[in-house]
Structure formats: structure tokens, C-alpha cells
Specification:
Distance between the termini: 34 Å
Radius of gyration: 13 Å
Helix content: 10-25%
Number of domains: 1
Shape: globular
Number of helices: 1
Number of strands: 6
Structural class: alpha+beta
Strand order of the largest sheet: 3-4-5-6
Length: 77
């Protein structure tokens, strides 16, 4: 069984559970909220820093047009 709290064999703890990790290169964090809060952006950035990945997408599905709900978050680019 695959445990989402492990990344490359390192136990990241129960607080580290990204929604989707694609090919150990991109993290997708999915939300459905009225308005994205600053904590949502910081959560994804923390995941990127812990995994040393460079790119993440924060996606909010609670918007009229999905393109308005996609936010690119970069780690040290």
C-alpha cells in the first residue's frame, strides 16, 4: 500500500498529504472554496519546499471559469 505521507522513502508526517503528485515533479492542490486564502498558497509552497520540487498548481473548482481558479506556485524559480 502506498502511503501519501512518504516522499522518496522519507516519512513526511501526517501533515504532509498533497492531493496529487505527478511523476515526482508537480504537486496539484485541489480546493473548492469561495475565495482562496493566503494559507492555501503557503500550504502548497510548504509542500514544494519539503519535497524540493519546483512547481505546483493550486486549483479552485468553485469559480465560474476554471482558468480563473488555477494558480501556479513556483519554489525558487
Amino acid at each position: 500500500m502506498w502511503d501519501k505521507s512518504f516522499h522518496e522513502g522519507v516519512d513526511m508526517g501526517m501533515g504532509f498529504i498533497p492531493d496529487i503528485m505527478i511523476d515526482n515533479k508537480v504537486i496539484l492542490e485541489l480546493k473548492s472554496v469561495e475565495v482562496l486564502a493566503e494559507v492555501h498558497h503557503k500550504q502548497l509552497l510548504t509542500y514544494l519546499r519539503l519535497t524540493k520540487l519546483k512547481l505546483g498548481l493550486l486549483v479552485n473548482f468553485n469559480v465560474p471559469l476554471i482558468k480563473h481558479g488555477i494558480h501556479r506556485i513556483a519554489n525558487n524559480l
